[in-house]
Amino acid sequence: MKKTIAKFLLAVTAIAAPLATMSSRADILFQDSTYYPYTNGCIEGQGLWYCDYPATPYLDALVTNNVLLLNTTNHDDAVTPTNGWVNSSIYTYASFAINVSSLPSSPNGGYFCQFQNINDTNDVCHLFIDSRDTVAPGTFRLGIANYDGTFNSVKPPSNYPLDLATGVTYTVVMLFDTSGDPADPLVGATLWINPSDQDYTNALNADYLTPGVGVGFVYAQDDTTSPAQQNIIISQIAFSPYVNAGISNVMVANTFGEVNTTNPPAIGLQPQSGTNYSGNSTALYTVASGVDLTYQWYSQASGALSDAGGAFTGSTSNILVINSLSATDTYYVIVTDAYGNSATSATATETVITTPTAPFFPPSQPGQSSTGGLTLNNNLFTSFSLTNFANGTGPLSYQWYFAPTNLPIMFSSLAGQNSAVLTIPELAYANAGYYYVVASDGVAGGSSTDGPTNSLTVLPPTVASLPQLHELMQTIITNITGSSTNVINSSPVTVTGYVTPFGPMTSPNNTYAEFYLQYQNSGIYVYWGSAGTNGIPAPGSYVTVTGPCQVFHGQLEIDPAANGVVVSTNVPVQMPNPQLGNFFALTTNSLGAYGVQAQCSLVTFTNVYIYGNKTGGSITGAGGNFYTNGYTAVYMTEGPYNASSTPKNTNYIEIYVPAYGYGSITTNLWGRPVPTHAYQVTGILADYKGGSELDVTRFEDFVTAPPAPFTNSVALGSKGVLTLDWPVQTGSTYSVHSASNLLGPWTQIAYGLSYYPTNGTFNVTNTGAAKFYQISTP
Fold first, then answer.
1. Cα angle, residue 491 at apex, residues 488 and 496 outer, rounded to 5°
2. pLDDT at position 295
3. How many helices (H) and strands (E) in the chain?
4. What contacts 415, CB < 8 A, 6 or more positions away?
5. Of 225, 303, 355, 527, whose CB neighbour count within 10 A is largest?
6. Among the ranges 197-211, 312-326, 556-570, 678-692, which has the highest mean pLDDT value?
7. Left (φ > 0), alpha (ψ -120 to 50) or beta: where does 48 sit?
8. Is domain 375-390+398-459 classified as CATH 2.60.40.10?
9. What is the distance between the alpha carbons of residues 9 and 250, in angstroms, rounded to a whole number?
């Protein structure tokens, strides 16, 4: 967290003496309850709490009855300690009690807790709250996430697998292990909620069980080789007011047992009464807090319920589904923890109307369209849903229908859309049109009724991933010509990615900047007309760009304004790995499927021969050298150019080497000889006026020395992940192959590895039968 983000930080300011008096448990580094009671009101200046931002504190970090109150409406103060605890261990455990009073205002939520070192120069083990992917209505989830804190734009890597209720207290235990040892089962971050000893043991063994005992743990994906993670000395724990909750009983230690505490079961979400028609199904939810809870549902008419016979599903889980309602009944659930303690829920009465009733849509229902239908405007690539529940004697069945905006309007059924909720995970322009649902029953020979007609307009995207833009470009490929401009989105769209050029790519007069961004294997050309070359972000920078998007001369392009380029300081610099280029797919049709998907990305070609012209002529410009303070255009073939062979080897791609310099800016290409042969060449694949070119921006990307022999090692890494490591040659790319036996056949499972930085690592996430692996150069 940066100082511009408000936060509350907790750490030990006293020297070793107070620690020795707080407990005989020598592994405890900090226990805030030792310093209770606090005086109700502002916590800043009490005990271990301090404010260092802003310079004039707002004094809105509050404590009531020894509980730190996190409040999303009061988050102006950054509270930090003057000192932290001394931590010589690679294992740092923390626990605290949390009681969330309300759901996050956005489903995305945000992080509110982390480990850090003194003065907050490195952060790890971010704890998030969000309400996405929950099953029970009105609940939330906690997740442990990457240290870079990019949760605003992406889903947290790892969420605790159960719904949590507001207004009930949970014990949170989190660990960050800085060892970086692939054999260490808990390297990186781990999160437990109300854990038992079995939960901890199963985490050590990477043992994922079916729901029940010992599954209350989740790993984060921040167990990389990043020095910011491996070298951090954790000596502070921080809380930020990005959740409405109370925090108490904060402890930090070097062992799990020292920080873990248990509480008796408590029910936070009670089953709710309802009214329905016979023949339909319904669900009753409960969410409780406790250690390895088990559930048993009961009804007034039947006693203890069972899934046997099919009338009920989930009779021993927190969600009871009554599959076919027949009579009014009252239900409740008893939850029991691992120690035999139990809690009983309130009762819920499900009233069943048995009078035969044809299906009908109520005039108005929360969260769904009214009888008049909805007029909706949603952006491209966003998720979309419509809800129309019908009432009436069941079982009810549903079928959704769709008509595009074309005239005449003609509806057809949507395959697989057979529930009251229509869901489209990612909108395309073709989804624009009209929707309605038909509800049917089997009463008196069957009857049906139509729901309201809803209209949907799909607008240009406001946020898009680069792969999504490439998919969109693929859908309009028949309208793209090599020399025209095709607008994808005239309004600003935001994309993110890593900067790939190693040198300036701009005009001779230095009036504008240009560079490429890449995310995964998709890229985009950025025309930054308001900035000179000095404004180009460094290679490997993580950049967010906002501006109109178009296809210009066959290439995907975005044109940001002066403030439309933001370089992140939270994401480590890293260069995307190049993919292996499909040479002949590009030389025959640069705007084909492969060309559209790969363009603007780093691509490696192998066994390249380089010539001065398109017909295999020698390199004569600048005396056979790359131009100084200018650009060089040469041509390559895969294999030597040979017009007399059968088949002829005359296919070529242009290599464009931009090398303009201004002031102190130079490139390492100036004046160096143009190689006539390279074992591999890596650059940004561009499409210019209907033809492919490779833009190379550093001399190392012409690999002219044959790759040296190497050996690779195999190790069983974190959480049972197999890790392959090998030394690499700078600028070279490598492929990983697998086989079920030593004789093969071998299958390429990854390529373009180890380009930058220069260490080779591949994690095998397939946990199937044992396999053989080999690493090779292209």
1. 75
2. 96
3. 7, 55
4. none
5. 527
6. 312-326
7. alpha
8. yes
9. 12
Residue type, 48: L
Candidates 127, 156, 148; CA nearest to 542 is 148
The 3-state secondary structure of 258-288 reads HHCCCCCCEEEECCCCEEEECCCCEEEECEE
Strand, helix or coil at 296?
Answer: strand
pLDDT for position 485: 66
For residue 154, count other CB atoms closer than 10 A to its CB. Answer: 12
Using one digit for the tens of pLDDT, what is the confidence trace for 291-332?
Answer: 999 999 999 999 999 999 999 999 999 999 999 999 999 999
SS (H, E, C) 469-530: HHHHHHHCHHHCCCCCEEEEEEEEEEEEEEECCCCCCCCCCCCCEEEEEEECCEEEEEEECC
Q: Where are the beta strands (DSSP E) in 286-405?
A: 287-289, 294-299, 303-304, 312-313, 319-322, 329-336, 342-344, 348-353, 375-379, 384-387, 397-404
Band of pLDDT at residue 763, cut at 50, 70 and 90: confident
Two structure tokens written together for 588: 């025959």
As a whole number of angstroms, the distance between CA 137 and CA 130 comes to 13
* Cα gap 397→416, rounded to integer Å: 12
- Closest CA relative to residue 542, chosen from 632, 638, 466: 466
Polymer length of the chain: 778
DSSP 3-state of 49: coil
Strand ranges, E, within 553-659: 555-558, 565-567, 579-580, 602-611, 630-638, 653-659
Question: Domain 266-353 falls in which CATH fold?
Answer: Immunoglobulin-like (2.60.40)
Spell out the residues 6+ positions from residue 249 whose beta carbon is closer than 8 angstroms to its own: 32, 33, 95, 96, 97, 261
CATH of 7-259, one of 2.60.120.200, 3.40.50.12280, 3.30.70.2740, 1.20.210.10: 2.60.120.200
More confident residue, 742 or 482: 742
Dist. CA 773–CA 778, nearest whole Å = 16
How far, in Å, CA of 22 to CA of 161, rounded? 35
Q: Read off the tokens for 130.
A: 């969000």
Q: Residue type for 694, please?
A: L
The pLDDT, as a whole number, for residue 8 is: 39
Mean pLDDT, rounded, of the chain: 83
Distance CA 178, CA 116 (A): 12
Decide if 605 contacts 692 (C-beta within 8 A).
no
pLDDT per position as a tens digit, 182-212:
667 787 888 999 998 888 888 887 776 544 4
Is a pLDDT exceeding 60 seen at residue 17? no
Which own/partner pairs from 611-615 qualify as long-range (CB within 8 Å, at least 24 positions apart)?
611/635, 611/636, 611/637, 611/641, 611/652, 611/676, 614/652, 615/641, 615/643, 615/650
Query: What's 461-704's CATH class?
Result: mainly beta
How far, in Å, CA of 177 to CA of 234, rounded?
10
